[in-house]
Amino acid sequence: MKRKEKRTQLRSMGYVAPAMLVLIFLLVIPLFYTLYCSLYNLDYLVKGDFVGLGNYLRLLKDVRISKSLLFTFEITIISTLLSVGIGLLLALWVDREHGLFAYLIEMFGLIPWVISMMVAALLWRWLFNGDLGLFNMILKALGHNPIYVVENKNSAIIALIFVLTWRLVGYAMIMILAGLKSLDPVLLEAAKVDGATPWQLLWHIKLPLIKTQLLLSIIVLTVSNFTNNTVPKVLTSGGPNDATNVITLFQYNLGFRYYQFGTSAALSILIMLITSLIIVLYIKVSNYKI
Amino acid sequence: MNKTAKKAARKTCSALMLVVLAFLTTLPIFWCIITSLKTPQDISAYPPKVFNFTVTWNNYKQVFAQSFLQTAWNSVVYSLLTILACLVLGYLAAYGFERRRFPLKKLLFYIVVIGIPLSTGSSVLLIPNYLMMMKLHLTNHWYTLPLLYTAYNLPLVIWMLISGVRGLPREIEEAARIDGCSQAYIITRIIPPVIRPSFAAAALFAFIGAWNEFITATVMVNGYALKNIQMAIYDYIGFFGQEWGPLCGAATLAIIPILLVFTFLGKQLVSGLTAGAVKG
Amino acid sequence: MKKVIATLLAVLMIGSLVACSGTPSTNETPAPANETKDVAVSAGTNGEDVTIRMWTFLDPTNTSNGRSIALQKMIDRFESENPGVKIVVEPQQWDTMTGKFMAAATTGEAPDIMWCARDELFGVLNAGLLEPLENLFMGSWTQDQIDDVDDGFFRFGERDGKHYTLCLNKNCTGFFYREDLLEAAGLEVPTTFDELYNAAQVLTREIDGQQVYGLGMSFSTESNDAQAIVNWLLQEQGTLFNEDGTAKWANESGVAALEWIKKCIDTGVTPADSVNKTIEDIYTEFASGKYAMTIASAVRLGTSRANASFDGSTIQFAPLPGGTIIDGWFAGVYSGSKNKELAGKFLELMYDNESDLLWINDGAQAPNRKSTVEQITIDDSNKYLNSMLEAFSDGWLPSNTQAFVGWKLDLNRPVQAILTGETDYMKALSDAETIFNTNNNR
The CATH number of C33-170+327-394 is which of 3.40.190.10, 1.10.260.40, 3.40.50.920, 3.30.460.10? Predict the structure, then answer.
């Protein structure tokens, strides 16, 4: 009997084995390899001395790294909350509408997510250009002085948050909408009959029930924004004066600009650790059962 | 009377909001499309020309004169292979995680979950991946990019399909088993049709991931025969400058398939996610 | 059971770790120089198909780019002269391709011919990834032939008396000016920083309702070479680095340079938004007529003329005051290549007199060889060639005995720092020094 159970369990494992092999091969092994690299001096990809945690110490000592990490957390949190907030509003809106109109909202909302983000960031940079951009052309038509968006510290940060938010609003919308659509109409009707105001309905019934979808979109968005280096690189080039220098841009430059692949690997490990922590936290908070 | 007026006002308001939404979300695409129709001189014009320019098709001619069609075809193949592999592997894994018990389940599941950032374009593992793939002579093949894209998108696909399978009552399976269906039949014939929307949603996610990927592609493959469509776009951001016209032309062309797919499968996306969300 | 599988998994992971761990240390991949020689040549002559792979950022199938057209013609000539040999260009992203080459070389997958970026050449040579050209074709060159190509670029590819590269796409940073605007204002082409500032001031005015600025500059830290400050530093101290390879920026010359830049911004001859502009922004804006003069790369003159919304033929190029930084792509033969002889042969062909004329005529480039200079006629339309040749002969390159990476971008940092008003001048410069020194392990 025991033997048979073992055989069944092994057979059960066969279901996940193919996918897990792919993931172990292309995710876990490179991760361990990165860990290994991070312990060496690997300038120009030429293996040098074993430095132990030296690369990590160097990173932790660098004030620019901690500044950049803090900044990355800030914009990640802000743009994620904005995306999810606006996404929630859009989802509630779509949920109320029907047919073609609802479909149009969905489609327009999703467009920023489905197009290549490097092209999008490049175009936004151009649209924000002080003299040649559409944004300032409109401002001028309204009688306003031009704003040099990516050349000014505060506006560069705002622009970065804007584009990050813009990119994932549709994603959040669709995730949350899925939650709203799955709500039991009978339950909502009953609440209405009991005299619940639309606000109460939202706050006490709908939101608690779509908690999982909200959390899932928050996590995916957080991780996506945290590891996004394309948008900062293209939109604001990390500037001015490091004002928008996110941590992944730092990591990329350590590798491809300074050829310090050991230190770059150490930073990769730190970034992976942080994102993994965020995700594990989500699993715990949402009580996801597996 | 009051009610109809209110209704009309609401409708107008909704329509206005839709216009604002459409404006904000499509602004870059709009700019991309009109730039692709301009001459270099009109592109550089000050103040910027929004409508008052002479339309030229030269940028598109230039795009097609190069290897664009080849790269577009490559991207179609890569995306289809990625979707296929993601769905088959992802579905099996999702079924296993949701319906079966086996050793190390938790650990394996956490590996899946930690892999989710990969699908969001994280490039932190790029260099180790490159070195390893090269060592094993896996770079520069037709399967190089689909393999990587499958690995990148698989975690999210598994996650979505777990929700899909979870939303399916166990009674269906049990009933089928009582009717004498084999396990293989249940897995291949009974369940997939029921959770088809989940498949569609997962496929769309994998498609977006594979179609828009750029950084891995520039590193992993060389030569026209293997380039993907995004690389064809970035060819116009060269050492000798950005050629805005053809760049925008190629980018516009690359968006069209995505919009087509979404127009036809968009409905499935929402219902697919919904189906999975019942107990998610 | 659980334990067994856990152990298996752990073994698998460790095993793979060990398997991969050799990767970074395989810089000894390069085979001895003469080993493959005979094989390669006989393969070519026997009529068996040999493929020579080359990495560059040029795409020879691009029929709208003059340099690509020139390259395709060279490939055609080589292939007709060497039946059975095929040149395959694998176009790469220019900013990451040298790093990718180093990575590819660790497993022997690197191309036969590589175009290396200037600042990365040290790392490439240090890893022994290039074959001395003396082992290939240069051994049989006469002194005259060597003299014909001998210049700063050539010597930059030299190590221990051997030459490893030939420089293609020679380039230098200077400034574009609109000749008609200078003439209308009665100005000569400026040759000192004072003259440059004064000219910029005169040229800053409104033309047909558009605000035109005197001098365009860009200081993005993701953009290309630092502007103005490097020329100042070179003018004052002749170099950017100390003997030991550390940065030599935080001093009076550096401060004077920053003050000059600040003056340009404060008086509005350079717009304030230059602080985070990339050089690409500047080219786009210059084409729109926003600037009368702008700091720019010589190799971009052709595209700027073609894209200008005004009469492009009025754009000319001149070197900046102070010292000029020169740059180029350093093409060499991969030391682990199986067809070094043939690869060398093609490299030599890309650099011969006939090809040089193609680079010049189709690609609008400056001559690579001294002997070619006499074969071209310089008139008003291509008088920028004179300025380029002048810059090439007395331009500055970093030493090739040490690694110098990131400096051209790091030097934008102090400019951004003082323009955002966050630090004083000396602090800004020493911060940049620290970043450079740390990243170069000094």
Answer: 3.40.190.10
Question: 3-state SS of C321-365?
Answer: CCCCEEEEEEEEEECCCCCHHHHHHHHHHHCCHHHHHHHHHCCCC
Residue A156 CB partners (closer than 8 Å, separation 6+)? A149, A150, A236, A239, A240, A243, A244, C276
Q: Is C334 helix (H, G, I), strand (E, B) or coil?
A: strand
Using CB atoms and an 8 Å cut-off, which of residues 160-189 of chain B contact chain A? none
B102 touching C (Cβ < 8 Å)? no
Identify whether the C-beta of residue B86 lies closer than 8 Å to the C-beta of residue B150.
Answer: yes
The residues, ordered by sequence, that sit 6+ positions from A103 with a Cβ below 8 Å of its Cβ are: B266, B267
- In chain A the domains, ranked by start, together with CATH numbers, are 17-285 (1.10.3720.10)
The CA radius of gyration of chain A, in Å to the nearest whole number, is 24
State whether A93 and B47 contact (CB < 8 Å).
no
Chains that touch C (3 or more CB pairs under 8 A): A, B
Q: What is the mean pLDDT of residues C254-282?
A: 93
Task: Calculate mean pLDDT across residues A232-258.
Answer: 89
Residue C29 contacts B, CB cutoff 8 Å: no
The predicted model gives C31-40 an average pLDDT of 39
CB C52 within 8 A of CB C346: yes
Say yes or no: C109 contacts chain A, CB-CB below 8 A.
Answer: no
Provide the 10 A C-beta neighbour count for residue C202: 16
pTM (predicted TM-score) = 0.89
Are residues B103 and C1, on separate chains, in Cβ contact within 8 Å?
A: yes
Over the stretch C143-182, which tens digit does the pLDDT of each residue have? 999 999 998 899 999 999 999 999 999 999 999 999 999 9
Quote ipTM for the complex: 0.88
Distance between CA atoms of residues C311 and A129, nearest Å:
23
- Name the architecture of domain C172-325+400-439: 3-Layer(aba) Sandwich (3.40)
Residue B66: list chain C partners with CB under 8 A: 59, 61-63
**Chain B nearest CA to C319, separation (Å):** 19
